[in-house]
Design brief:
mainly alpha, Rna Polymerase Sigma Factor, Chain: A, Arc Repressor Mutant, subunit A, transcription, sigma factor activity
Amino acid sequence: MKQVEDSEILAMFAVEKTRNEAFNLLLKKYQQKIYWHIRRLVLNHDDCDDLLQEVFVKVWKNLDKFRNDSQLYTWIYRIATNESITFLNKQKLKNNTPLDEVSTELAENLVASSYFNGDKLELKLQKAILTLPEKQRIIFNMKYFDDMKYEEISEVLGTSVGALKASFHIAAKKIEAFITNDDITY
């Protein structure tokens, strides 16, 4: 089946009669990508499902205000990223947990999750990613897993391309050091 262009989805959404169909096309096109973006940030499937629903409710409520000054999917990624960061910050405050312990807690949840089916190396990679500062983790996930271009990540995060490249490079070096360190258990 042919992928529907964003411009066509937006045109359909602008017409009351085709609004629901347009939104269903948008969901079909982006729901899985956004799910995995959120999932890599919060790691828990149930939390991810809740956030995914919140993201698309926001998209539904605000799509008619979308100004086309960015790509539609980077706009949706920005909403998903902001919702995920807000969720993680609320969790940290709710549990009165220091930032480094949040990463440990997320790693423990990942290991215990029935939805995680990776091998030991994948688990070690995920734990390595969790050691990164929040912004580096987001940048690494978007570049490595979502295969986004630096320009697209720049639109989502509002950060210069040069800063993104530096952050990604530093994150990759930290992950490499974590993975090659034999003293770390997994």
